[in-house]
Amino acid sequence: MKRAEEGRPLRCGLIGAGKFGSMFLAQAAETVGLEVAVIADLDAGRARAACAAVGWSEERIAATRIVEDAAALIAAPEPEVVIDATGHPAAGIRHARACVDQGKHLVMVNVEADALAGPLLAREFERAGLVYSLAYGDQPALICEMVDWARACGFPVVAAGKGTKYLPAYHNMTPDTVWDIFGISAEDAAAGGMNPKMFNSFMDGTKSGIEMAAVANATGLTPAPDGLAFPPCDVDRLPQVLRPRAEGGWLHHKGQVEVVSSQERDGSDIAQHLRWGVYVVFEAPGDYAARCFKEYGLATDDSGRYTAMYKPYHLIGLELGVSVASAALRGEATGAPTGFRGDVVAVAKRDLKPGEVLDGEGGYTVWGRLMPAEDSLAEGALPLGLAHDVKLTQGVAQGAVLRWGDVEVDETAEPVRVRREMERTFAPPGQAAAQ
């Protein structure tokens, strides 16, 4: 508001006018003091159509610079903050490094790029005195906020994560089957600009792994050795289910990232589920706090020492302005990587043959499994973000983790070079990443 009164609105640039970008554009037009100065999309016509679809006037569209070259947006003098909403890992890495060169803060909606190389990118921004931020409204940033809240209150965090619709069979889903399981007609999905490949990544477990890797790398929480378990759980049972196995819960350890399912394993829906929300489970550090939990009506486990807070919904791009304002006005990220703790690796959806070309996130060939980064490096596992448009050199059985040696790798490609650099930078002492 103050910036608006002074005649110097906070100006930002948006790369990618898809669903997330469109949601941001809808609310940016209603936010006093915020101006979208430049929009970049591979199809300028699509970007203009997106602006019109979310209610922008013809005058506003005509007054906004729309380009097809993201580099031109980043180099433009107007934006203080750049938003990458492309969902493309290689593009996200390229845009991030260009922002550092041009002295621009970055809101990385592109969590795929963050999972692939975020810890290294965040370090580069920090050294340049710039903000690299996860996107508020997307679940990872909201989870980071809840973890920060619990720790600021002095509560040890036992688990944090999100909800989703999950059954084990979903790991093999393809874009051809996604809408029936997602719960929307193909016609409605198309009308809403929903990409079947991207939304299939939500259903086959990939997006959950990517988002929990981002949370682990930003909070210090860590994945279980076997990855996500997706326990069925309603909101009242969060503290009962998300406690250590030794105490009757599903957790491998305290301080874990985990995703809960809105379905029982028999496929029945759970009442009061958390499919669209986020949570944090925390522990009473002493008897007095545990007594306060009881006095103030908190739902706890049967010991009375574990409880949870949750947010039942998230508004995705409609909330993104919080990150833009935080970066520009406070110089603070709404979540950012501080280490390399979680990784997402490619797993075969079916038996794959030599010579086949992988089609990446949400496609027909692989899905993304969360692993502790240390284990991923030791096994030479192929990062999901690099499992796109690469040819297999040997067959891989359904359910097996792909490795770098299973595919033809162009070591000169920027995303490969950046990933290799991150692996060298963050590998545990004495451990070199397997090739």
Short description:
With 435 residues, the chain is an alpha/beta fold. It is built from 17 helices and 14 strands.
Distance between the termini: 52 Å
Proper CATH architecture of the largest domain? 3-Layer(aba) Sandwich
Report strand %.
15-25%
- Unreliable sequence segments: none
What Rg, in angstroms, do the CA atoms define?
21 Å
Major sheet strand order: 3-2-1-4-5-6
Structural shape: globular
Number of discrete domains: 3
Q: Which structural class do the helices and strands define?
A: alpha/beta
Task: Determine and state the CATH class of the largest domain.
Answer: Alpha Beta
The named CATH superfamily of the largest domain: NAD(P)-binding Rossmann-like Domain
What is the CATH third-level topology name of the largest domain?
Answer: Rossmann fold
Largest sheet: 6 strands, parallel
Mean pLDDT: 95
Using brief descriptors, characterize the structure shown:
17% strand, 17 helices, 435 residues, 3 domains, globular, alpha/beta, single chain, 6-stranded parallel β-sheet, 4-stranded mixed β-sheet, Rossmann fold, Type Iii Antifreeze Protein Isoform Hplc 12
Task: Describe it.
This protein has 17 helices and 14 strands. The chain has 435 residues and is α/β, with parallel strands linked by helices. It folds into 3 domains: 2-137 and 317-330, Rossmann fold (3-Layer(aba) Sandwich), CATH 3.40.50.720; 140-166 and 205-313, no CATH class; 342-426, Type Iii Antifreeze Protein Isoform Hplc 12. Strands 3-2-1-4-5-6 form a 6-stranded parallel β-sheet, sandwiched between helices. The longest helix has 17 residues, at 111-127.
